[in-house]
Leucyl/phenylalanyl-tRNA--protein transferase (Kineobactrum salinum), 238 residues
Amino acid sequence: MPGIARLAPGQAFPPTSQALDYPNGLLAAGGTLTPERLIEAYRRGIFPWYEAPQPVLWWTPDPRSVLYPRELHVSRSLRKTLRRDQWQLSVDRDFSAVMRHCAAPRTTGPGTWIGPEMLTAYATLHRLGIAHSIEVRDPDDALVGGLYGLALGRVFFGESMFSRIPGGSRIALVGLVHILRRGGFRLVDCQMESRHMNSMGARTISRLDFEAELDHTVDAFVDPAIWTLPATCGDLLL
């Protein structure tokens, strides 16, 4: 791939200013998804996104989609769903299952970029207490919605979400923000702009502004005890 750095083992990422304009944010190729490499990447606002058998591709788009927890938009219809209080909530109970659901084929097309290498790498980050999942369950305890991502300091780097019921991923996002507000988190990184996240209150900021946010937040201490939720979604409105 002309125009981007090829990472040798142990080689640092190039300056993010070298990322391509098209495709937007492509910075480098190569390397492996070790915990050390992933943490180094996310701390700088870089994330992996690729499909095997491609090499790992590293991205830092400009502008960047972010959600400030205080700006979460909960629609009238979503509030009605939450008030019904029929869905159960859990945190980090089955991280790997959430990832597998996110990787499954969608009704609108094929599966996602989440292959075996990604599943293994992020499961390792979960065991290290860095990656977290929010789960939405039906009365029979089956997973019907959820999301996962990484927490570094007071930034949550969202990776993917899924729904098996109308609004399942939205309920999970409300649950996540419930936690993040309690922990004093600054923002949720949504990576690329999407209509779905914009409808929940996300907006775009420049790469430089995003990196400035990271500089002030990724090293903050956050009590790991914040990663709990009420048993059912109705309590998210309290």
